[in-house]
Amino acid sequence: MVMSVFLSFIFPPPPSLFIKAMSVVSLTSLAYTGLSEARGKHLNYSKFWNANSHQSITKIKLSSRTGMLFLYTPAFLAALTSFVLFPYHDFRTLLLKSALALHFFKRIFEVLVVHQFSGGMILDSAIPISLSYFLSTASMIYAQHVSQDISEPPVDLKYPGILLFLIGIGGNFYHHYLLSKLRGKGDKEYRIPKGGLFDLVICPHYLFEIIDFLGISFISQTLYAFSFTLGTIFYLMGRSYATRRWYLSKFENFPEDVKALIPYLF
């Protein structure tokens, strides 16, 4: 019963061992990484750039700007290249390619223009994150491409998906902008963020990123897209939980009623 309801919202999985394997790998690896974040074993970027750095193999430090560009540029290029590699597409596939390209273009724009950086990034963390973004983007587009000749799901979610995507990408950008205004030029001190949903959760930019990827998975309606989005939710839950714990340890006056990710709940 549950499976039949679920199948009314997705394309039947195509006969591709690669897509089936990537669906499992993306979900389990992201969920495991989120659990590791909650347990205190962090990917070394942002506030946690030097956490557990003694465990790093190479210990090569990148500047935050260089590291962030390294994270997002391969995925952006993968999305752009898909317009050349798969020039014949239906409307849903065109929407998916455009949403992914816009998502990573926004991230690169923020790195170059919006964000105020401090700290750095450890190469050992930058490589798997960049590879994850690149592979997930390529896999999502490929899964959509091979699903074009399969019957559409009974329930069409692509238009609600467009709305969710726009809300997510807009809300994520707005809260990144608020974060950038916490510091003046050359100021590297952390402060408790205010404004927007920061009065309710410490990571509203993560919340809107989840909404962004929910929109993308609604546009796609493939098993891989939903698997990747579910894995992303687990990862951002773990990362936001660790971030709230970090703020509690750093600021004595941190408001206890501010949650990690979901207002009033988590």
From TrEMBL:
Which keywords accompany this UniProt record? Membrane, Transmembrane, Transmembrane helix
Task: Give me the Gene Ontology terms describing cellular component.
Answer: membrane
* Domain annotation 3-oxo-5-alpha-steroid 4-dehydrogenase C-terminal: ranges: 157-266
Annotated membrane topology is: Multi-pass membrane protein
List the InterPro entries hit by this protein, alphabetically.
Answer: 3-oxo-5_a-steroid_4-DH_C, SRD5A/TECR
Give the organism the record lists. Quercus lobata
Where is the protein found, in the record's own terms?
Membrane
Tell me the protein family, please. Answer: Belongs to the steroid 5-alpha reductase family.
- Its transmembrane ranges are 69-88, 157-175, 222-242
Question: What name appears for this protein in its UniProt entry?
Answer: 3-oxo-5-alpha-steroid 4-dehydrogenase C-terminal domain-containing protein
Gene Ontology molecular-function annotations = oxidoreductase activity, acting on the CH-CH group of donors
At the top level, the lineage of the source is Eukaryota
Thylakoid recorded as keyword: no
GO terms of biological process kind:
lipid metabolic process
Answer whether the UniProt record assigns the keyword Membrane to this protein.
yes
